[in-house]
Specification:
globular; 389 residues; TIM Barrel; alpha/beta; two-stranded antiparallel sheet; 39% helix; single chain
Length: 389
């Protein structure tokens, strides 16, 4: 069946759009991946039980856990309670801890389930007044709770640490003390200010080389406590240069949602593993591409993953911190949830044209798993603006 819909364009008019994509069918991978691949997963809100922005929020636990089981059954690991789950943008620490606990508990039956969870300082009552000791205690509190839940650790970048630190040495001290408390190797987290403007100057400097030097000092000084580092700077060359300076035992996890195909595939000098928000939105393409890479089929890897890049660049366009809206909207189009209401009202953070372009890109990449349903749903959303399926 041919599906046609009228969608808004950048010049303010409506034009007919005929769906062209061949939907990828999600199938469990037939071979183990040769890259570790975490998907930072979104949460599904309860639209009639959540509060205003800045107040308590309610999660649809059934749909939220079901999506995580879908990710795991496609061979992907879960990076839990991270930015994609609206950590610090609607998801409180109390919500996050329950999310981690439920995810670990309710996926135990899935063989090889790989779960690492965000541990931060976001429960501090007054970030601007926090001292370094407050930051260390806050990390310790969350670290203990997440480890008790049975999850691996991702040490999230801390807004409070940015405020409290007076020099690079303060970062060295905080990470040394916090890493000493980890009961297994942790993943560090370098989140660029495109994702969170409050993290500008992380590691004590606005200069990349100085920041990189401090971060590498921390890694080399605590190598036995570190599994890897996720870098989300949206700059492939910076990631590659940093990757080459890592100890052999420390992995690079790309968080670059613009350049991930080449960074994961790598070259003669190395490659990156993955810890990506976009994997939440491109699950079958990511899974099947990684399976192809594992058996040396680079052509199929590229054929599956490269068409997802325009979609990812669109979802993560500036202001990048609102990318979660696109991830959740695509989950709605694909029938994983019955609405695209988000914690804290973030479903309203992108304009109508953004959703229309997302629809086009997802179709081109074969990522609308039921085109008829997706066309009907976007028509329902845009109909007040004149869109007709």
């Amino acid at each position: 069946m041919t599906h046609e819909i009228k969608l808004p364009t950048s010049d303010g008019t409506l034009e007919p759009y005929t769906l062209v994509g061949q939907p990828l069918v999600a199938v469990p991978p037939s071979t183990p991946f040769n890259r570790i691949a975490y998907s930072a997963a979104h949460v599904v809100a309860q639209p009639f039980a959540t509060g205003d922005a800045g107040t308590s929020n309610a999660i649809d636990w059934s749909r939220t856990i079901a999506y995580r089981r879908y990710l795991l059954n496609q061979g992907l690991g879960i990076a839990e309670a991270m930015d994609t789950a609206q950590r610090g943008m609607g998801l409180s620490w109390d919500n996050a801890l329950e999310l981690v606990t439920r995810t670990v508990s309710e996926t135990r039956d899935i063989p090889g389930a790989l779960i690492a969870s965000g541990c931060g300082t976001d429960h501090l009552p007054n970030v601007s007044a926090a001292s370094l000791d407050d930051v260390i205690r806050a990390y310790a509190s969350q670290l203990e709770a997440v480890q008790r839940a049975g999850s691996r650790i991702i040490l999230m970048a801390s807004r409070a640490l940015v405020r409290a630190a007076r020099s690079e040495r303060d970062y060295v001290r905080v990470y040394r003390e916090v890493l000493s408390m980890c009961d297994r190797r942790a993943i560090l987290h370098w989140l660029g200010d495109a994702f969170d403007p409050e993290l500008a100057g992380y590691w004590g400097s606005a200069d990349f080389e100085r920041s990189a030097a401090t971060c590498l000092e921390i890694i080399h000084g605590n190598e036995e406590k570190i599994d890897g580092i996720k870098i989300s700077l949206l700059d492939a060359q910076k990631e590659i240069l940093f990757r080459r300076r890592l100890p052999a035992s420390v992995k690079m996890y790309t968080g670059d949602d613009f350049n991930y195909p080449d960074l994961i595939a790598g070259d003669d000098e190395g490659f990156s593993h993955a810890l990506l928000g976009i994997f939440d939105a491109i699950v079958p393409a990511a899974s099947q591409a990684l399976a192809a890479l594992a058996v040396g089929d680079r052509a199929r890897y590229d054929a599956l993953l490269r068409p997802t890049v325009p979609l990812s660049r669109h979802i993560f366009r500036a202001p990048t911190q609102y990318y979660k809206t696109g991830v959740v909207f695509l989950a709605y189009l694909n029938g994983f949830q019955d609405h695209f209401f988000m914690l804290g009202g973030h479903h309203g953070m992108r304009p109508p044209l953004y959703f229309a372009e997302l629809f086009r890109h997802a179709d081109a990449a074969g990522l609308l798993r039921d085109p008829e349903l997706a066309a009907r749903r976007i028509a329902d959303v845009l109909r007040p603006l004149g869109c007709v399926a």
